[in-house]
Write a structure and sequence with these properties.
Length: 343
């Protein structure tokens, strides 16, 4: 089983070359976040990214994808996803085998789950990467270039984690499932990364990412997302009711508490960087749950970009991108201003 997991993981690393949300989706996450930055976070973002990125999280958001296939950055490839696996983890506590609290991930059978210990590879995954770069972006002993790198990784990974197929191991996150988008042959993963996102932007947002971002920001400030934002910043797992929360790491937390706890351990940077966080895991579980409810609900031969599947997917894409942009701002605000500074 171990060797199967390792080889499946190797395949995932090699073939996930088409990357989450594509450039357009990532940029939108960054542009949304930029609108909600608190004063110190905004000042850091502007000075760190500088003219190279027009002082903008939008412009810097897809840098991590542009370097991941270069030899110098190949180590970062596993950080773009977490592979929710189809294997149950059996846990024996005081002689009782518990399987119900940790169900396996099998989206076609309606079972979705992400478990950090089960799913995060030994080389790290998006969950450990977010912890690492949260610690590093605030580390004043690092160089400006190292802190800019950390910022660009956070900018990107908070987007990736919102893409349901970046938190799914099945068929290499859908890369191995052939699909159709507007008559063109593609795969399921790529349709979610780029095909449906760019059609959505063309159909509904004047074909530009900045308009798309502005439309999502308006929904957050005074539209249908306004009433949801406080939930977005609490990190109570939607997939795990309170009665099923078993471990300390399952206790409800929010964005502020998560970052503050990480920093309280940050004297030892190496230890802090791998400390499991509550919020990124909850974000991953939320995205992954869409694999059960929407992502795999197509029918044989259905065109994902022109049928009812597209109509069903667009609200999920809008929600996930808006939510992750807002969370990125909140996360940076806690890091630099000490609080989310958001309603
Ligand atoms: C740079 O950012 C400013 C606003 O901060 C914007 O008006 C301008 O269009 C941006 N330029 C580019 C090239 O994106
Ligand atoms: C943390 O980030 C640094 C710099 O990018 C990287 O070299 C290191 O491998 C990362 N550590 C973990 C545990 O992800
Ligand atoms: Zn990515």
């Amino acid at each position: 089983m171990r060797s199967f997991i390792i080889s499946a993981y190797a395949v995932a690393v090699c073939t996930q070359s088409v990357t989450a949300w594509g450039t357009l989706g990532h940029q939108t996450v960054g542009y949304v976040a930029q609108e909600f930055l608190a004063p110190k976070a905004l000042a850091f973002v502007k000075s760190s990214l500088g003219t190279t990125y027009n002082q903008s999280l939008g412009a810097a958001a897809s840098w991590a994808d542009s370097v991941r296939s270069l030899a110098a950055y190949r180590w970062s490839a596993p950080f773009h996803f977490v592979d929710a696996e189809g294997e149950s983890e059996f846990l024996v506590i005081l002689g009782h085998t518990l399987t119900s609290t940790i169900s396996k991930d099998a989206p076609l059978s309606g079972s979705c789950s992400v478990q950090e210990t089960r799913d995060c590879g030994s080389g790290g995954c998006i969950l450990t990467a977010i912890a690492n770069y949260t610690t590093r972006v605030a580390q004043t002993s690092l160089s400006a270039a190292q802190r800019q790198e950390a910022l660009k990784f956070l900018d990107h990974f908070l987007g990736d984690i919102g893409q349901p197929l970046h938190v799914e191991a099945y068929e290499v996150g859908g890369n191995d499932i052939s699909a159709k988008c507007s008559g063109k042959t593609t795969n399921l993963h790529a349709a979610w990364d780029t095909g449906m996102v760019s059609k959505n932007i063309d159909d509904n947002h004047d074909g530009t990412v900045t308009t798309y971002a502005a439309d999502l920001v308006a929904k957050i400030k005074k539209g249908t997302f306004k009433s949801l934002t406080s939930d977005w910043l609490s990190c109570t797992s939607i997939t795990k009711p309170a009665s099923k929360r078993f471990f300390l790491s399952d206790a409800p937390r929010d964005v502020e508490e998560d970052v503050h706890r990480l920093f309280s351990r940050a004297e030892d940077v190496a230890e802090a960087s791998v400390t499991p966080l509550a919020c990124p895991l909850v974000w991953a579980q939320e995205s992954n749950s869409y694999c059960c409810s929407v992502v795999f609900t197509y029918t044989m031969g259905q065109d994902l970009c022109t049928t009812s599947y597209f109509t069903k997917a667009v609200p999920v894409i809008d929600l996930q991108i808006a939510k992750q942009g807002y969370r990125l701002a909140a996360w940076l605000n806690v890091i630099f201003d000490g609080a989310t500074n958001l309603p």
